[in-house]
Structures
1.
Amino acid sequence: MIGGGFGGAAAARALVAADPTLAVTLVEREAVISIGPGSSAVIAGLRDAASIRFAAAVIPGVTRRQGEAVAVDPVARRVRLGDGTMLDYDRLILAPGVDIDWDGLPGYGRAAAEIMPHAWTGEAQTILLRNKLAAMQAGGTVIMSIPASPIRCPIAPYERASLIAWFLKTHKPRSKLLVLDAKEHFSNQANFQAAWKALYPGVLEWVGLPDGGRVTKVEAAIGRFETEFDDHRADLGTVVPPQRAGAIAVAAGVADRSFWCPVDPATFESTLVPGIHVIGDAIIAGAMPKAAHAAGEHARACAAAIVASLRGTPFTPMRLENICFGLAAPSYGFSVRGAYLPNGKLLNEIAGSAKTSPPDAPAEMRAREAEEADGWYRQITAATFA
């Protein structure tokens, strides 16, 4: 098992729960993991950075190895770690998450990210954006760019935009946020746009693809965002970066030309390399979004499929569910839910399973869903890292 985040830790737990005789090893690079959920609240000063920081899981019955998997030999069924250690496997599960596609946006590289933080991976970037936002002068302009799909947690950029707008409205009078988006439509769009109209008139402006929202180049040193129609200058820029499957997926040969991983949607076994399963944000999942909750569902199905295969017993594809919460302000939440089943090469949403908060919901419902979002956060982090 490579990767100890929401998918990897859940898969390791599910395997030993289903068959305690299995020898399960979990390889995780970090001793302390900084997670994506909650990071936008940190940026807006609503959470402390420590609240999104967790010690890597110690799971009864699972051998934990701290290290980075750097190579996979699918013929010998062996994983090589960065320190040269070799680990043999009968089945390998990769939960590599996403990496930034540093070639995906001209002008945006690691040096540019120190000026225009992405705050998409790693605690240091989250803190950097938080500090830059806090230091910006009142009346300044923040520009945020959002790439085309696919990305991790499709709802997250819009929650981030909302909470940055909340911070500006609360702490930086006369400041504005311009959101440049390479998409015309996005997750929970009606709820977000209703919230922006109600909460942030004159503060948050969203420009979608038809109106020139796709950023084609950045010049971080001068705060410049170039689009197909116009140039924009920011006092503070932040870039939600183009993404791809984590590096070990590419090294293992389970990513295709899109740099994402095609899998059997019932068992999560790679369609490119037998004996390797891939779960979480790295996969091509069809209608099921890349999300923390979804990764745990992938893990549950993948573990059951592996145990059935090792025992030589039939496996019935499982119904998978997902929920994503979004915050437009500290007490203004909403959600989108769905259920999914394998259909051909992808996961399709089950007809009638989608449930989205109504855009005209009363304030009481918004406050309740904000509380539910916090409860979900506490539950999933406890289940993953406790």
Note: The chain has two domains: 6-97+246-385, 110-239.
2.
Amino acid sequence: MREIDGGDTPVARRFWEIGRDAEAAYRAYDFFVPWATAKIVLSKGRTDTDLLLLGAFDGQQMIGAASVAMPLLDNLHLAYVSVHVHPEHQRHGIGRALAGACEVAVRQRGRRVAVGESYGRPGSRGVGQHFAESLGYAVALEDGIKVVDLDATEPTWAAMEQEVAPRSAGYTLVGWYDAVPPEHVAGYCRISEAFNDEAPSGDLELEAEAWDEDRVRTREAENLSAGRHDVSTAAIARDGTMVGLTEIGINENASHRGFQSGTLVLPDHRGRALGLAMKVANQRSLRTRFPECTVLMTGNAGVNVAMNAVNERLGYRLVETCVELQKEL
């Protein structure tokens, strides 16, 4: 077992293949990061994350892959741990050895909390959850993973737009691709900082995030360099302030699919159907820019009643469960 260099393309490719093949064996949908993007991220990294890559080898062949991603801008106490073992080499203690090596690395870098994810069928405990709990991890949050067929549901959008129009009167929807318009950067930062406070986080030990224009622009540039695009729609109040935001992430190397990221309406502006209004408008923007995108995936905590109701209206259906697990080291 050893640390690997993400800039070594053949090694990085094998690292990526192990994760892809391991997840293909149990995930409901293929949303694994495309190689073209993984190659860039593994080799160049990101300015907001310290990324450590570990490989387990049988001779010269890598059979297990693990990563430790440590935020550098905030939440400096935690690390996100991911462990994959190729399906042909599972149940031989390789995953446990990799997880142990990850925890050593986390401690050595002064982090005290490790967080990981496990996916499984709705209503069941996945293999990854059993594995993590055997290592001392505890469930901190459970999300329902849902998908929507855009081809099938697009004919319903017009009726929803007519329905929400009277309730959201007085607000303006503003959309953009990739770069936040200069006049909306301050509002975007305000909404981004509110996400950790407003979105359900269960028992996850998360701290507030600080956003400014430099962070926004750096993130945009790094996303674009890796083939990642954002489709965004914001709700603007009469006084010009941003009071709601929804974002879809889509990768140009796998543009048939997208990920519905965060959606938030500030508390004083809820009850006006802005969440549904923004999401429908943003899906229209997505189909304009990426007409080949036919499916979106999203995740919602069960306690997020309002957003689950919005997604049900949009036609999302539950396909799996994501359990986020946490361990104090």
Note: The radius of gyration is 20 Å.
